[in-house]
């Protein structure tokens, strides 16, 4: 990867925020050109940055501090990024999340797929599921509203989806190019884990292989149409965000049913109102008791690759006017 001197701080117009180090690894891997560390960082900004270029966009990447999670932590990182980078025009929240499949409704979300926040129903694309008022008798009233992604990103999203109706996504090519440039990614576990390792467990019997009486599954696993293609599928709609790590199938399905959510994660809700961005989440698990880390690195890579494809549909001139 080419390395050059960093630009003046105001030249960086796109901010990328990640929650985990392997999400940041994936984001850095998409850079077409890496710049040297910046000078002139605000003295009250504790973030650590990687800067570079994606297509014709000058990009700054930051990650939450190690071991720190949640919406408040994400908000702090974003606010400090804005403190230093006065030229930022919009952001991308890029990383992983838990999928919320609903097979009867055709939402066959698989591990390695990508969910992108987009306005749906009365939601702006991200909804904070744990911000609610208890009105008694186990009833809750949802509070607050999170802004939609900026128009420049939604317009690019429309064009990108239209192009996907005609031609294949660039994401497989981007993934192949990333691995060619950074072969250590394969050695370090960022390769495709294989469809045989993608199992959706039954919510009726808890995914127990000993439950022979369940009519919804076979040995605790839901039968789904075969998908041999390793390339990710893209889903657009609501992302549920909150400070609680969800690994309960009942809570997951409630979010899908009541919010129309396709994905659940822990950071985006802290950004939407003060850091104009879009959330891009690679699916690494199904937010159930079988949650594990096997797909996290590959899912982070698919999300970063999608973010790079999206930026190809935004010109630097559009960005500068934002």
TrEMBL record:
GO molecular function, one term: catalytic activity
Matches recorded under Pfam families: PNP_UDP_1
Cited Gene3D superfamilies: Nucleoside phosphorylase domain
Domain Nucleoside phosphorylase: from-to ranges: 226-307
InterPro entries: NLR-like (IPR053137), Nucleoside_phosphorylase_d (IPR000845), Nucleoside_phosphorylase_sf (IPR035994)
Name of this chain's protein: Nucleoside phosphorylase domain-containing protein
GO term, biological process aspect, one: nucleoside metabolic process
């Amino acid at each position: 990867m080419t390395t050059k001197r960093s630009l003046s701080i105001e030249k960086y117009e796109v901010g990328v925020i990640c929650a985990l180090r392997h999400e940041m690894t994936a984001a850095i891997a998409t850079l077409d050109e890496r710049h040297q560390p910046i000078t002139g960082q605000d003295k009250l900004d504790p973030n650590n940055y990687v800067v570079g270029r994606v297509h014709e966009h000058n990009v700054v990447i930051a990650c939450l501090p190690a071991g720190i999670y949640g919406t408040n932590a994400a908000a702090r990182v974003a606010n400090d990024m804005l403190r230093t980078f006065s030229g930022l025009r919009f952001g991308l929240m890029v990383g992983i999340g838990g999928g919320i499949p609903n097979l009867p409704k055709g939402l066959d979300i698989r591990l390695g797929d990508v969910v992108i926040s987009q306005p749906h129903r009365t939601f702006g694309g991200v909804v904070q599921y744990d911000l609610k008022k208890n009105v008694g008798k186990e009833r809750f009233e949802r509070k607050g509203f999170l802004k939609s992604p900026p128009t420049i990103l939604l317009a690019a999203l429309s064009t990108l989806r239209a192009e996907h109706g005609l031609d294949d996504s660039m994401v497989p090519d981007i993934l192949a190019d990333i691995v060619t440039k950074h072969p250590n990614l394969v050695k370090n576990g960022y390769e495709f884990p294989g469809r045989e390792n993608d199992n959706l467990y039954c919510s009726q019997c808890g995914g127990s292989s000993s439950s022979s009486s369940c009519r919804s599954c076979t040995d605790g696993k839901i039968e789904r149409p075969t998908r041999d293609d390793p390339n990710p599928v893209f889903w657009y709609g609501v992302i549920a965000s909150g400070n609680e790590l969800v690994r309960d199938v009942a809570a997951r399905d409630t979010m899908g049913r009541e919010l129309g959510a396709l994905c659940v994660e822990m950071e985006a809700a802290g950004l939407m109102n003060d850091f104009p961005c879009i959330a891009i989440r690679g699916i690494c698990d199904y937010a159930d008791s079988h949650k594990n880390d096997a797909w996290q690195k590959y899912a982070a890579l698919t999300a970063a690759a999608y973010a790079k494809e999206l930026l190809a549909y935004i010109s630097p001139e559009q960005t500068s006017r934002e």
